[in-house]
Amino acid sequence: MKPDSTTHGPSVSIPVLKDFETNSAVRRVLDALQGEGCAPRKNGRGWQARCPTHHDRHPSLSLVEGREGRVLLRCWAGCDTGAVLQALGLRWPDLFAVRRVRTNRLP
Ligand SMILES: [Zn+2]
Q1: What distance in angstroms lies between residue 18's CA and the mean position of ligand 1's atoms?
Q2: Are residues 86 and 103 in contact, defined by beta-carbon separation less than 8 angstroms?
Q3: pTM of the full structure
Q4: How much distance in Å is there from the Cα of 21 to the middle of ligand 1?
């Protein structure tokens, strides 16, 4: 049995991330920071917060939303981002926007 695809072939469309989806990763991290008392504050294009990993008096943790809603987290005091995530109870995948995987009709 052959598929009848002379007039229309299978159109593969790449799902475009929507605003609420791109924001979800940032929001998740901000929520975690707030929960840890790190007092995240909007700063220009991103946010600043106190680092949960070292004794931080001055907000040295910077959070920027990168491409595709990815969260770029960095402690300017040099803390390991993995350790920061652990302190926040987050994992690496939490830094990425959640994509809804749609199952297309497959032959
Ligand atoms: Zn730090």
Answers
A1: 31
A2: no
A3: 0.70
A4: 28
